[in-house]
């Protein structure tokens, strides 16, 4: 079980996540986000940092040059694409870093149809919802053949349900707002509580 914590805005908290053996830390480059990284962490400090936690830049329909510049300036390990990026964008980025293609699941959708054209051009999928959890059972019926994360309003109370997700390629969870003291400031105690509840 891998854990990805999104919306990190402090280098100290990135260090703490690394100390907790968290696998991925999301750094938000979407300038309309309340967790927008901006200049909160100097690029040089991030680039020179030595963490096992993978620094994941989060973008939505950004220009390729902006993403490539961020990879270089911040030393990003992974790019997460939250928009309508096509397969060409994913393929080009995959030559530089690992790529997570995110898909918003709203109601009943055909997961297999949603991901079909992306199978060859990214490393992971993320299935998420906004405002409420989607029915994770639909993933167990999908023919996903790539490691994937589940996200969207996950809290500590979901640990038991997460353990019940049955799919050979279920890779991890994406957590964010329910593990914050305020936007962009995480509650490390809650994250540790979740880890223990997951038996991890």
Describe the structure.
This protein is of the alpha/beta class and 200 residues long. The chain has one domain (2-197): TIM Barrel (Alpha-Beta Barrel). Helices cover 29% and strands 23% of the residues. The protein contains 8 helices and 10 strands. The chain has helices at residues 11-19, 43-48, 64-74, 87-94, 111-115, 137-140, 159-163, 188-197, and strands at residues 2-5, 24-28, 54-59, 78-81, 98-104, 124-128, 148-151, 170-175, 180-182, 185-186. The strands form 2 sheets. Strands 1-2-3-4-5-6-7-8 form an 8-stranded parallel beta barrel. Strand 4, helix 4 and strand 5 form a beta-alpha-beta unit. The longest helix is centred in the middle third of the chain and has 11 residues, at 64-74. It is globular, with a radius of gyration of 16 Å. The chain starts with a strand and ends with a helix. The mean pLDDT is 96.
Largest sheet: 8 strands, parallel, barrel
Instruction: Give the % helix.
Output: 25-40%
| Major sheet: arrangement of strands | 1-2-3-4-5-6-7-8
What best-fitting shape do the alpha-carbon axes yield? globular
Distance between the termini: 7 Å
Topology as a string of helices (H) and strands (E): EHEHEHEHEHEHEHEEEH
- CATH-defined topology: TIM Barrel
Q: Which range does the strand content fall in? A: 15-25%
The name of the CATH superfamily reads Aldolase class I
